[in-house]
Structure prediction request, 108 residues.
Amino acid sequence: MKHYNVKYYNKLATIFLAILMASLLGCASTATKEGTGEYLDSTVITTKVKAAIFNEPTLKTFEINVETFKGVVQLSGFVNSQADIDKAVEIVQQIKGVKSVKNDMKLK
Prediction:
C-alpha cells in the first residue's frame, strides 16, 4: 500500500513540475515577444516618455505616438518642425531604462 502512495505522489509531482515549467516558459521572452517583466518595464518606460513629452510645453503631445519594446522607444507621428523632432528625441534619451530611440516622426 505504501509503494502505491509513493508512485502516486511521484506522478503528481511530475505533473506539477511539468505545469510549472510550461508556465515559466510561457513568460519567457523571445526576439519578437517580451516576457512579463520586460512588458511591465516597457509599460513603465512608455508612461515616463509620454509624461516627459507632455511636460515639454513646445511639443504637442497628441501628435507624437510612443511605443516601447525591450527598452527601444519608437516615436512616430507628425510634428511642426525639425526642432520638435530633435527635442522629443533628446527628452526620451534622458529617461532611465531607454536603450535607444527609433525616430519615425515626420514633418507636417
